[in-house]
């Protein structure tokens, strides 16, 4: 076994194995501090109160907390802010007064701004709340069962009778609300990038969004391409609560049974990653049958690198891939996996049309 000195000779600085291992062993501190910061509305306070300078001291932030000041409040808050800054959620600089006294001041980074609670769907605040519900956290504390148990439903294994989605619909109204809000928030942010990166909606006459939920993303597409006739297709109990949008018809049904005909393009946005291959092939073949000759399926999903690395994108897709143990059969896929699904469901050609956020792809399956 090598000595500590040998380790030191082989690595330097922030890449030292000791620091990497130690930080991983304490990795629970980051979500714990982020959860607390959101509960204390730190990001909202900084967004609202920072003013033109866009920076605030810990004492200024502390004055807006729902607690009476006490001697070391500012010091304790500063410790929280430093951790958030070290993970690029805040910016930090030193401010020196005329007497030479220095203090740290903090501002919202671009990533930190995504935790400001807003009504426009551009935030992760509700998503972070959702993943910290005790019933969710307790599932991950028993993660090893996902490996040891031949079954694929980790949530059901840990909590008994119900799958996660059945639990959402029957047992916890608050979690259900936060889940749907967070999924909508994610969809809005991601669809904005899709519309920037992908131009394949041009020339489409009729577009069906299979698994389109409340139709919000389809509305974003139609707003940019108003000539498109759009159909939002999802389970009857989903579309019955969907709001009315100009140019969009809501249709209830089950994609595993059939998909409505009459469209020259069908969109599957973050649908495939919820299902095992056999189910994916089932609804993809239904899409194939519903399309005319030369029609296409637009598949928007994460694309897993063949070999993982330490990049933010690779880390992101690997986290989500493991998160999908919540959904029986769900997983992220490589580009080769999607090419297999395309070929196996009878489509004639596969095209990676565009990418965004480095690991998200817009793919076309052509009939």
The spatial strand order of the largest sheet comes to 5-4-3-6-7-9-8
Poorly predicted regions are: 1-7
Strand element count: 9
Mean pLDDT: 92
Q: CA-to-CA gap between the ends?
A: 58 Å
What is the count of structural domains? 2
Q: What would the principal axes of the Cα set say about the shape?
A: globular
Keywords: Methyltransferase, S-adenosyl-L-methionine, Transferase
Pfam families: Dimerisation (PF08100), Methyltransf_2 (PF00891)
GO molecular function, one term: O-methyltransferase activity
InterPro entries: COMT-like, COMT_C, COMT_dimerisation, SAM-dependent_MTases_sf, WH-like_DNA-bd_sf, WH_DNA-bd_sf
How are the SSEs placed, and which strands pair?
Layout: H1 4-10, H2 17-25, H3 29-39, H4 42-49, H5 58-62, H6 73-86, E1 90-96, E2 102-108, H7 110-113, H8 125-131, H9 134-140, H10 144-148, H11 154-159, H12 164-171, H13 173-197, E3 206-210, H14 216-224, E4 229-234, H15 236-239, E5 248-252, E6 265-269, H16 277-290, E7 296-302, H17 312-323, H18 335-344, E8 349-356, E9 360-366
Parallel strand pairs: 3-4, 3-6, 4-5, 6-7
Antiparallel strand pairs: 1-2, 7-9, 8-9
